[in-house]
Fold:
Amino acid sequence: MEGKDLLSIADLTAEDAWRLLRLARDLKQVGARPLLAGRSLALVFEKPSLRTRVSFDVAMYQLGGHAIYLGPTEVGLGQRESVTDAARVLSRFVNGIVARTFKQSTIEELARYATVPVINALSDEEHPCQALGDVLTVWEHKGDMHGVTLAYVGDGNNVANSLLYLAALMGVHIRLASPPGYEVQPERVAWATAVARQSGASITLTADPEEAARGADVLYTDVWTSMGQEEETAIRRVAFARYQIDQRLLSLARPDALVMHPLPAHHGEEVAPGIVDSPQSVVFDQAENRLHIQKAILAELLTASP
Ligand code: CP
Ligand code: NVA
Structure:
């Protein structure tokens, strides 16, 4: 994968995903290792972040390299400077670009003009690094991925899209329960369905959170209102009121089911108060695994010199 971009989970094969997972597991064991000594990484963020920003920065440090955070007021992508110029300038300085943008098209434009790898750190359409860290977490807790049933309850958003794609690649049975009008787009389901035919995964779409949760190995949810959708908050609170992970929904899943959430969480909205702290919750393992998977992603993609 050296020199390649990671814009979408659809850029990966199942073998790529497994290579990243195994490398993340190994790097988690060894801690710091100077695989990227002398390398630099730009973190170009149009939106706030805790986990993604800190995990990429620490990952670069632990790999012997260096990260430079560039927030919205510093670059002004598409305003102070065109995306295409920023991509070409950054490519002269750094060995990789991690970008969190409002639009997926901005990341794609960066990748088209950059001569170094570009990594999607969340857009309106996908959050591939999150999905990879999440699968690492499920793998650690369940010992396998094949045959695991993951129920995603909530918005058919960036997190859901990347999870669906990765589940389809890895043979995970995924059930998506979203309110009408907030489902994952049909063309994404079609892509995943075609991939699932090869991997043995299955995809179930429903509007009923209970149908999704029954007998599941993992209950996963995300915020009802994503960054950039703040003006829809009130209408979404009404639409998603039934789509909360609470003790009653959890009681329908397997007794050893995991509760997962990418964080930040809105306690009392998509998760009932206390759910994140329940014994079945692995949300902080998920957060930690962002670091280990970022190290694997960087070590795989960024080994070329400038
Ligand atoms: N889960 C996640 O991406 O968190 P941040 O938005 O804090 O980076
Ligand atoms: N769907 C959320 C994920 C945050 C990590 C958002 O885009 O805001």
Q: What stands out?
A: The pocket of norvaline (ligand 2) is lined by residues 122, 157-159, 222-223, 226-227, 262 (CB under 6 Å). The mean pLDDT is 96. The radius of gyration is 19 Å.
